[in-house]
Amino acid sequence: MADLMQFDLVSPERRVTSVQASAVEIPGATGDFTAGPGHAPFLTTLRPGIVSVAASGGSQEYLVTGGFVEVGPEATSLLAERAVPRAEVTREMLDAVVAEAEAALAATSEEPARAAAELRVADARGLAARLGL
Amino acid sequence: MPSLKDLKNRISSVKSTRKITKAMQMVAAAKLRRAQEAAEAARPYAEGMHAVMSNLASGAKDSPTAPRLLAGTGSDKVHLVIVATSERGLCGGFNSTIVRLARVHIARLLAEGKTVKVLTVGKKGREQLRRDHGGLLVGHIDLGEMKRVGYGNARMIADDVLSRFDAGEFDVATIFYNVFRSVISQVPTAQQLIPASFEVEEGAQPAQYEYEPGEEAILADLLPRAIATQIFTALLENAASEQGARMSAMDSATRNAGDMIDRLTIQYNRSRQAAITKELIEIISGAEAL
């Protein structure tokens, strides 16, 4: 098994990063997970959160919102609607993430979906608090 | 016969027009390069999205629970025609070719007895369509404020279109735009957005994945994004095409101005010479008469 895999982070406007990574932590829709080399083929959507890439040249962190990730044994590509390096994340971006989750909650009324939306709001608030901006 | 002074004024005015068109051509060339780079940079995302969507869609298409964005509403009575054009003119046939294709499409749909609604993006298309399809216009999205096409613009258009779809305003949506081939060739294209269609390449093996959450949940989540991505691709193609068309239009305008200056200069020189000759003749015949 190789100890590195190709990792691409792509936003609609450009390829944000493309590195050889040993592990990538990803906020999947159903929970955070870490993709490493040799991972089984796997496809999941994302929830807003921080992706952290452990690459050969140091680690990188990005705030991503909306999109999906395609994990494979040799390559992982993450397509995010927005990908911002951690250092450039601003309070407004986090507020927008929280506001979006709250709007989704306000729009759903049926029960199982509503509980999920409530979780999303709590999750977004937690993210904002954790980054502490 | 215009006087010498008139000709002189004419020449200097054409010269300044040539300066302007030359400058516009160079600006368009610079903008074209930027637009092409943007289109290039956006390709990995669009391709990745397309690959995943065609994979998912081929599996879900026949399922009875497939999302409406993919399966359609089950009828095709009401068509939404999205016409994406530019905000500014002076770009040759760029806007007219898109509008012409859209008009043909609208006329065919109307002849088939369908209802047509038109959503325009960009001022120029609206101006052209208002004349004979004014009653069909249901909305307009202005891109005049922004300098470059961003994903946010595409998202905004997609949100507008999707909310209309959710409200049951139409069954089929098609977007019209120009595909950039080269500076001298832009191809007007119609692409169906809703129900979403993702062509699978012949012989392409669908990749096997573990999906989480289920395939259909992912599909439902990604479809709106895929449509926004298609709109974004269309806008980027349009932006590059617009600059390409403007560049070649301004190039020929500059050349025409040059030709005109040459012609006018010859005419100017001839009339000047004629005036001199006339004066000489007058002097000589005056001298001879004495």
Q: How would you describe this protein?
A:
The complex is a heterodimer of chains A (133) and B (290). With 133 residues, chain A is an alpha+beta fold. Chain A is 29% helix and 46% strand. Chain A has 2 domains: 5-87, ATP Synthase, domain 1; 90-131. Chain A has helices spanning 91-107, 111-131; strands at residues 5-10, 15-28, 31-35, 42-45, 49-55, 58-71, 75-85. Chain A has a 5-stranded mixed beta barrel. In chain A, helix 1 packs antiparallel against helix 2 (111-131). The model of chain A has no long low-confidence stretch (mean pLDDT 84). Chain B is an alpha/beta fold and 290 residues long. Chain B has one domain (22-249): Pyruvate Kinase, Chain: A, domain 1 (3-Layer(aba) Sandwich). Chain B has helices at 4-60, 68-71, 94-111, 123-133, 151-166, 215-289; strands spanning 78-84, 115-121, 137-141, 172-182, 185-194, 210-212. Chain B has a 5-stranded mixed sheet with strand order 3-2-1-4-5, sandwiched between helices. In chain B, strand 4 (172-182) and strand 5 form a beta hairpin. In chain B, helix 3 packs parallel to helix 4 (123-133) and helix 5 (151-166) crosses helix 6. The longest helix of chain B has 75 residues, at 215-289. The relative contact order of chain B is 0.18. The A-B interface holds A 8, 10-15, 28-30, 40-45, 66-68, 70, 77, 79, 81-82 and B 38, 41-42, 44-46, 48-49, 52, 150-151, 154-155, 207-213, 217-218, 221-222, 225, 228-229, 232. Strand 4 of chain A pairs parallel with strand 6 (210-212) of chain B.
